[in-house]
Amino acid sequence: MPQTPSSLYPPTIPPKSNGLVRVPGSSLTSTDKFLVAASSLTIVGAVAWVPLFYAWAYKKWKAIPKHFTKKRALYGALLMSIAGLAITGPHRSKRFGEYLGVRKWKLWKSWLRFIAFEVVQSVGGNDATNQMMSEENSNSGSNSSYINENVVSASSETFDMKNDQAILAVIPHGIFPFALAFATLSEEGERAFGKFRPVVATATKLVPILNTLISWLHPVDASKSNVDLALSQGARIGMSPGGIAEMFEGFPKPMTHPDDECAILNSRKGFIRMAVKHNVPVVPIYCFGSTKMFKRLQFSFLEYLSKMLRVSICLFFGRCGLPIPFRQRLLYVMGEPIFPPAITEGNSTSESSEEFSRRVNEMHKLFCDELVRLFDQHKDSYGWGRKTMRLL
Asked: Model pTM?
């Protein structure tokens, strides 16, 4: 679908915002396009080509005459060694990723130009934050003066968005989680959001190439126990609360419209429960454009099978019908940090108590309200004024 000029490269920082990072997409080169296409085929397409490679290699092994026992044994051992190293090799560690300087790879610069990566901080909350943002916007030529009346916590006055412990909730997931990926993978993402550990689905361990890349980022498995442990150790984490299920929402699903942008949140309170339990804030981040980088074919049984197996089984495509994404600008809008509500005096803090449930529900509502505010406040500047957010 053709994009409006404002959706691709708006001439100014969106209103009511403070620009943090911007990578101009106009500087995209032919080399950048080649690197994006090649790396996407290698990484995103690995779910298809790696199994095909092993199937081809196995067929070649089977074709070796049985009386060539040494050749069959050598070929089989080589194939098993390659598979074993790919799954459990010593290269799959955070330390190895740091040694390679994975976040500094020029490849990501090409990707950021391809998606015209931009991060803005929405102005709102308390007077101190508003005053600071107002001064910064004045220096950058912006006339923003918006104040969010949904006060989340006075603690936000002293909260360090890049260093203090928090849960970064990046929405939506998209068919492929590009939004979460580039928030944690690139130096520009680190400059905007600080370093954090991405929470990834257990199923990513089954995706060759991608699982190795993820292992270099010190990920957290999406199980409750692992997330709980990471937060108890003081980690900053980032996640897409909608998860695999969110891949199947929105058009072309029946009863949806192309102008619907969906976020699965109504039944997703686990990340809020973790925030309340560990007394850490949740930072809502909406990424415009992340649902448009691939298109998918609608098959209801694949959605059912994916939810049952907790593995994404989705038929999707990009340019030329390949796993090469369509060019789409990604605009990250970061909202106010939302802190756990105060404990009512004299009430129990147990996770099974009514007081704990009250705090979770209250914080969850604040999060949903803030996310909708971010979407409605910035959709016009992105060129999506006709679109509506649906919380499911």
From this structure: 0.84
Question: For the chain, how big is the Rg over CA atoms in Å?
Answer: 23
Q: Looking at the chain, how many residues does it have?
A: 392
Nearest Cα neighbor of 191 from 104, 299, 64 is 104
E strand spans, 306-371: 316-317, 331-334
**Amino acid of residue 5:** P
Helix axes of 224-232 and 270-278: crossing angle, nearest 10 degrees: 30
Please give the backbone phi and psi of residue 288, each rounded to the nearest 5 degrees, phi first.
-70, 135
The C-alpha torsion from 48 through 51 and 57 to 58, rounded to 10°, is -140
Rounded to whole angstroms, the Cα distance separating 54 from 58 reads 6
Tokens, residue 34: 């080649």
Q: How confident is the model at residue 346 (pLDDT cuts 50, 70, 90)?
A: low
Position 247: which residue type?
M
DSSP state of 123: P
**116's torsion region: left (phi>0), alpha (psi -120 to 50) or beta?**
left
Beta strands (DSSP E) in 231-303 are 237-239, 260-263, 282-288, 295-296
Grouping H, G, I as helix, E, B as strand and the rest as coil, residue 294 is coil
Query: Which tokens hold the place of 323?
Result: 């796993």
Strands 316-317, 295-296: pairing is antiparallel
Question: Is 2 a residue whose pLDDT tops 50?
Answer: no
For 19-77, how does the pLDDT look when each residue is reduced to its tens digit (9 = 90+)? Answer: 899 998 888 999 999 999 999 999 999 888 888 888 898 898 889 998 888 888 999 89
